[in-house]
TrEMBL record:
This is PilZ domain-containing protein. Pfam families: PilZ. GO terms for molecular function: cyclic-di-GMP binding. Residues 9-94 form the PilZ domain. It comes from the Bacteria. InterPro entries: PilZ_domain.
Length: 99
């Protein structure tokens, strides 16, 4: 059982819940989905549709803006898709020099 727990908890950075109103958009401002968790290394996006999820294949690099309308805050980051499980998309933050 301990081996299974270690495999599940292999993240370098803990992920934290984000406001239920936080959304992610792409470079063109198109809605990707809601951001559920984020941490020092990445975040989880729940795609708004199957078509969006399919377009976000592992390995794809893109620029994402996270908007929290309640706080009128937005942040733009470069990311790489690390995994896709149905509508759940895990992305890793990357530096602009690695694009």
């Amino acid at each position: 059982m301990a081996a299974a727990q270690n495999k599940e908890n292999r993240r370098a950075f803990e992920r934290f819940p984000i406001s239920e109103h936080a959304v992610a958009t792409d470079e063109k401002g198109a809605m990707l989905g809601h951001v559920s968790t984020a941490g020092g290394g990445g975040m989880t996006i729940h795609a708004d549709s199957a078509a969006i999820a399919e377009a976000l294949a592992p390995g794809r690099k893109l620029t994402v803006t996270v908007v929290e309308p309640d706080n009128k805050v937005s942040n733009t980051v470069d990311v790489e898709v690390r995994y896709r499980k149905g509508a759940e998309i895990g992305v890793q933050f990357i530096t602009a020099g690695k694009k």
